[in-house]
What we know:
266 residues, mainly beta, Porin, twelve-stranded antiparallel barrel, 12 strands
Amino acid sequence: MKKMILWGLAAIAASPSLHAQELYVFTEPASNMATRSIGLRLDNTVYNNGAYRVSPEIMWGASRRWMVHVAGYASDMGRTFGPEGGSLYAKYRVFAHDEVHRHFRVALFGKVASVASRPAYKDEIDLSGTNTGGQMGVVATQLLHKLALSGSASYTQRWDGGPASRQAFGYTASAGLLLLPRHYTNYRQTNLNLMCELLGATALDKRAGYADIAPALQLIFHSIARLDMGYRTQVAGSMERWATGGLFVRLEYNILNAYGSHSKGR
């Protein structure tokens, strides 16, 4: 019984609902998922031009500092619906200052993507199913009780052929607010979070750029499952793009303590 109680307290401490408002919909925070946990995601996007893309993803909380994502992509952006390729994402937390109901964290991240050959005639570099390339960046997240703020900066390089832009500077700014529950009593309570994110990029070898705004709602169930619903739309810029945002829906399930005997925090 004592071991069960200790494990339960550890799971609550590592659970997503404790810092649910920084589980952003369109970006990743500096915090990592719980150590030795496995996450399963299914992302669905219906773009403004009518195209549809689906992305299954598996996530691994390798340690307190390391987290790894492997994703696949399929869409109907070609003549027929079919697979496009995949990507590998890794994040390493370099700094953490934690207090009660607040923390500040900084992490480095990188991503590589390989997709089926497609003429790169749009200046936007998209490593989520459209372009082959690599990205590196830094992200910082500040939790202030029920409010979480995060920002990132990144450099992306496209490796596939074509006349389009090959280098870009990316930036994001995210805010998440925990709306419900008003008073947290146990990890089984459903969380409702309101998100708003700014996502932008500027080409480094051409005069082109864009800025998107993306409001979203998020539900978290029993601290292990979540449903995200958001809408992304362009608000500034003239960069040629594959699609200017659209409706996004994510389903996610996390397996805490997937292996080993104890899950550490984030």
